[in-house]
Amino acid sequence: MSATGRSVTVRVPATSANLGTGFDALGLAVALHNRVTLEVVAADDPARTDAGDSLPVAAYERACAEHGIEPVAVRCTVAGDVPPSRGLGSSATCVVGGVLAARALHGTDWDDDELVRLGTLTEGHPDNVAPALLGGVVVSVAAADGRVHSVPVPVAPGALPEVLLLVPDHPVATAEARAALPASVPFADAVHNAARSALLVAALATGRTEALSEAVDDRLHQPHRAHLVPGVEDVLAAARASGASAACVSGAGPTLLVLSPATGTEAALSAHLADHPWSWQLRRVPLEAHGAAVEESVAA
């Protein structure tokens, strides 16, 4: 197996899941990245990172266990510009980094479908893992038999050239956001989201950007989590009024996602947020067409 001193660094993009009405199913990758490095160390090395203290190592060891591979002791570091607890898939960058490091360290031939499945085992759901691995916009569903179906959405040229991220200085824990969701929803709300999530995929694939605002009108999670981000509905309305194609909460929040922002969107939102109780960073970034990749593999 891999000798002590070998290391693998994986570059993984941030993701925005729960995209619009695609709750727990639709996500996209954006051009912010974390780098996950696993370095093989001796089993008794005090610098060894334990799985209980590290999501990448937990994902690495889970992937190995699924395939009967004996994991090695590793030291893990994570660096980059994907902030934690902001609805940008920080945990998925760690999980995907661990899974891809496992493939590189042990020389396996796991394909994309298997990588998504392995990542989902640790992450718990595929809507961040799939776009982090595959890039672009991806629809993903975890089936009852354990398989994960991940299908990239071919976004029409010019339909989504970039997004604007509104990232606050205030974190919201995923567990808190999950706890805000109801145990059930009215049938009419389920129909509302099912229709619009289909519209969202079709609009992106065909370039019908005039339909995006209606397509992201969610009833399943955003209304129930609105209290976690002060004034969120007013901010989203201001984004739409500025000429942007659409705006929604990113993941479980609190980051907000503006699709195809207009020329004046940043200025309008900066003015709107000037008196907000939180401080916000506005970042205009392109979609990340390419998923995670091993950036560096250093032999011992």
UniProtKB/TrEMBL annotation:
EC annotation from Swiss-Prot or TrEMBL: 2.7.1.39
GHMP kinase N-terminal domain: residues covered: 56-136
InterPro entries according to UniProt: GHMP_kinase_C_dom, GHMP_kinase_C_sf, GHMP_kinase_N_dom, GHMP_knse_ATP-bd_CS, Homoserine_kinase, Ribosomal_Su5_D2-typ_SF, Ribsml_uS5_D2-typ_fold_subgr
MF GO annotations: ATP binding; homoserine kinase activity
Example of a GO cellular component annotation carried by this entry: cytoplasm
Entry superkingdom: Bacteria
GO biological process, one term: threonine biosynthetic process
Catalytic activity: L-homoserine + ATP = O-phospho-L-homoserine + ADP + H(+)
Principal location listed in the UniProt entry: cytoplasm
Binding-site residues for ATP, renumbered to this chain: P83, P84, S85, R86, G87, L88, G89, S90, S91, A92, T93
Entry keywords, A to Z: Amino-acid biosynthesis, ATP-binding, Cytoplasm, Kinase, Nucleotide-binding, Threonine biosynthesis, Transferase
PANTHER family linked to this entry: HOMOSERINE KINASE, HOMOSERINE/4-DIPHOSPHOCYTIDYL-2-C-METHYL-D-ERYTHRITOL KINASE
Primary role: Catalyzes the ATP-dependent phosphorylation of L-homoserine to L-homoserine phosphate.
Protein name (record): Homoserine kinase
